[in-house]
From TrEMBL:
InterPro entries per record: ADAMTS_ADAMTS-like, PLAC, TSP1_rpt, TSP1_rpt_sf
Keywords: Repeat, Secreted, Signal
A cellular component annotation (GO) from this entry: extracellular matrix
Name of protein: ADAMTS like 2
Gene3D superfamilies linked: Thrombospondin type-1 (TSP1) repeat
Residue span, PLAC domain: 348-386
Record keyword Thylakoid present: no
Organism: Sinocyclocheilus grahami
Length: 388
């Protein structure tokens, strides 16, 4: 007459990805109509059945990190945070994905920068890092750095302007060029070339930047090859580094008129090669955007004696724009300890008087001035003893 029947499944427990649904037992009579559970035998009631189910695909979302500290210790600055697009790819697999997914879903992008304000400060000089010394080995030169005022509307004090140039000395002259063995020839005369690696090294064998060796005597890294006799033709060396560390600059390379005579490489005058086939020896180049760290002067030490802390603002600029693109590995420190003279345990009191209730003459005889009580109670007598 009455029996248990498993109900249809409940909605999936997950709105996206894979979840769990549950089927419950209900009591029905002979014609399938649901009735109250008391009509069925409770001992034979089936256990709920759990099945995996698939909800709709998870939608992407923006996730933001916490805000950074204010970029300035005084005045108006900025706080930054990292905003990334995330999506549930599978149960337990929540991952960052391309920002395009959040953009296509027309989700509002949370701000990555906001203004912050600390106590007002006057205009301050801000300086970038010093440039690399351009002097050749054993020579003296000048390094430069950019100096700017933090406030465009109020001029900084010119009398306190930091130096923008200073003397520098080039690297030691014992740096020498070294070269590897020549590689295989790549083709026939006029088209073939053989390549080797050329390094600038210290006497200890450590490889250093090429700028530390003299460019005038750098060995060629590319030679012609292919025949014992090869008429003059143009041969280009590898491009040198871009002449700027950031932004747009110029790169150059050596282009020579070379040939092979009797199996030996000959460098000829340019007129002996076809000028219309000469490869370009100069081209524009672009390094990473010009992001630079700037620092303000150090603040006063937080203490007047002992060990304290001093601070400065460290900001990243691209032109006049405050940005986040600077290399964190080269970020200057913004906080350091400052050690001053030791703090006295008790400031001297020139007007101190001995307490009349204390026998200070006896304290002097038995050498009690080092005791904290007598050094205060007999400060006048103890001070005279130390002075003598």
């Amino acid at each position: 007459m009455y029996r248990w029947k498993l109900s249809s499944q409940e909605p999936c427990s997950m709105t996206c990805s894979i979840g769990v649904s549950k089927s419950l037992a209900m009591c029905v009579r002979f014609d399938g109509i649901e009735v109250d559970d008391v009509y069925c035998d409770a001992l034979t009631r089936p256990e709920p059945v759990h099945d995996f189910c698939i909800g709709r695909e998870c939608q992407p979302r923006w996730e933001a990190s916490s805000w950074s500290e204010c970029s300035r210790t005084c005045g108006e600055g900025f706080q930054f945070r990292l905003v990334r697009c995330w999506k549930m790819l599978a149960p337990g697999l929540d991952s960052s994905v391309y920002s395009d997914l959040c953009i296509e879903a027309q989700l509002e992008h949370p701000p990555e920068r906001r203004a912050c304000k600390s106590p007002t400060c006057g205009p301050q000089w801000e300086v970038a890092e010093w440039s690399e010394c351009p002097a050749k080995c054993g020579r003296r030169g000048l390094v430069t750095r950019e100096v700017r005022c933090s406030d465009e509307t109020h001029a900084c004090d010119e009398a306190t302007c930091p130096a923008s140039t200073k003397n520098c000395t080039g690297p030691p002259c014992e740096r020498q060029w070294t070269a590897s063995e020549w590689g295989p020839c790549s083709g026939i005369c006029g088209h073939g070339k053989t390549v080797r690696h050329v390094y600038c090294k210290t006497p200890e064998g450590r490889v250093v930047p090429e700028s530390q060796c003299s460019p005038e005597n750098k060995p060629l890294a590319i030679h012609p090859c292919g025949d014992n006799e090869c008429p003059p033709h143009w041969l280009a060396q590898d491009w040198e580094r871009c002449n700027t560390t950031c932004g747009r600059g110029v790169k150059r390379r050596i282009v020579l008129c070379v040939g092979i005579t009797g199996g030996k490489v000959q460098i000829n005058e340019d007129e002996e090669c076809d000028s219309s086939k000469r490869a370009v020896d100069e081209d524009t180049c672009f390094e990473r955007p010009c992001f630079k760290w700037y620092t303000t002067p150090w603040s006063e030490c937080t203490k007047t004696c002992g060990v304290g802390v001093r601070m400065r603002d460290v900001k990243c600029y691209q032109g006049r724009e405050l940005v986040r693109g600077c290399d964190p590995l080269t970020k200057p420190v913004n906080k350091q300890t400052c050690a001053l003279q030791p703090c006295p345990t008790e400031p001297p009191d020139e007007n101190c008087q001995d307490r009349p209730t204390t026998n200070c003459s006896l304290a002097l005889k038995v050498n009690l001035c080092s005791h904290w009580y007598y050094s205060k109670a007999c400060c006048h007598s103890c001070r005279n003893l130390r002075a003598s």
